[in-house]
UniProtKB/TrEMBL annotation:
It comes from Ignicoccus islandicus DSM 13165. GO terms for biological process: tRNA N1-guanine methylation. Residues 23-279 form the SAM-dependent methyltransferase TRM5/TYW2-type domain. GO terms for cellular component: cytoplasm. SUPFAM superfamilies: S-adenosyl-L-methionine-dependent methyltransferases (SSF53335). GO terms for molecular function: tRNA methyltransferase activity. Pfam families: TRM5-TYW2_MTfase. Keywords: Cytoplasm, Methyltransferase, S-adenosyl-L-methionine, Transferase, tRNA processing. It comes from the Archaea. This is Methyltransferase.
Length: 305
């Protein structure tokens, strides 16, 4: 319904048959992912019309391509309506306070949040290495009652996650942690049943930390960006890349599923590989004492164990 309206508006106003597919609506804020050099005036025209025609939309922003800085924030340009970036987002019966400027929210991952939550068993301990404002962690706790260590390095995402944990009444199940998930993996070593790595840009280089935290056999959900070869289906690309990565660390594992999450560029796909790992060899690089940040004051550094 929403997609059909957006498609029609974009076609009527701009003669554009594609821009509608780059629009996300988070709560009452609409976000248009702007292609490099796409005329901002055209987007403003579309934004004003969206405000008139879409009852629930109160603000519209353009998102510039790419992310900036350590926290991978996106640059927004205000197009129409209220100039505010905080809103309430509802998904699968959970409520989230979000800020489209400060903490990453991906409504297109909604189906993935539910799929993963359904795989978790109530007795499991889960490590969410890149939790954002908490949509995977909170849904898992709410649906399955499992315990989740939910980590984010961005203080703004962490603060929202803490609020969201309370809002959804899962304080006894979700443990929000502000820090680098590499550091947290040392304290969790050998203790978790399932690891989520929902950040394709970092997942391959953080694989050793995920393997360190697992109790074997254990589950891994590895999100990757893969280049889809000519004539190859994205799922096959996922299998090829996922298998190669895991073979470099694990002598015994089973890939139980591969899924296309979304297409992120011409021939680039975001995929997820679900694997049951039985035996892995890993050598996480020890990080410097300063690298352990605020956690080292609470828990000591790995050299203190
Ligand atoms: C793609 S977002 C998470 C999206 C979220 N899981 C969802 O489903 O909406 C990635 C998050 O990882 C966080 N992040 C980046 N590097 C990190 C690190 N080294 N340790 C922990 N979190 C990190 C970012 O701050 C960001 O909030």
């Amino acid at each position: 319904m929403k997609d059909r309206l957006l498609r029609r508006l974009a076609r009527e106003l701009l003669g554009d048959d594609e821009v509608w597919s780059r629009i996300d609506v988070v709560g009452d804020i609409a976000l248009i992912h702007r292609k490099f050099n796409y005329p901002i005036e055209n987007l403003r025209l579309l934004a004003n019309e969206m405000l008139k025609r879409m009852k629930g939309v109160k603000a519209v922003f353009a998102i510039e391509p790419g992310t900036e800085g350590k926290y991978r924030l996106r640059r927004l340009i205000h197009l129409a309506g209220e100039n505010r970036t905080a809103t309430i987002y509802k998904e699968h019966g959970c409520v989230y306070k979000v800020d489209v400027q400060k903490a990453f929210v991906v409504p297109r991952l909604s189906g993935e949040h539910l799929r993963i939550a359904e795989l978790v068993q109530p007795w499991e301990t889960v490590f969410n290495m890149f939790a954002g404002v908490g949509p995977f962690s909170i849904l898992i706790a709410k649906r399955k009652g499992a315990k989740v260590y939910s980590v984010d390095v961005n203080p703004l995402a962490y603060e929202l996650m803490v609020e969201n944990v309370k809002l959804n009444g899962v304080e006894d199940k979700v443990i929000p942690i502000l820090g680098d998930s590499a550091d947290v993996s040392y304290w969790l070593r050998g203790s978790v049943d399932r690891v989520l790595m929902p950040l394709p840009e970092l997942a391959p280089s953080y694989l050793d930390y995920a393997l360190l935290s697992l109790r074997y056999p254990g589950w891994l959900h590895l999100y990757l960006h893969v280049l889809v070869r000519w004539g190859e289906r994205p799922k096959l690309s996922a299998l090829r890349v996922g298998r190669r990565l895991l073979e470099s660390k694990c002598s015994s594992f089973e890939i139980r599923g591969v899924r296309l999450v979304r297409t992120v560029g011409p021939r680039i796909a975001q995929v997820v590989v679900d694997a049951l790992l039985n035996k892995c060899e890993f050598k996480p690089r020890l990080r410097s004492a300063e690298g352990f940040g605020p956690l080292s004051h609470l828990l000591g550094t790995p050299w203190d164990w």
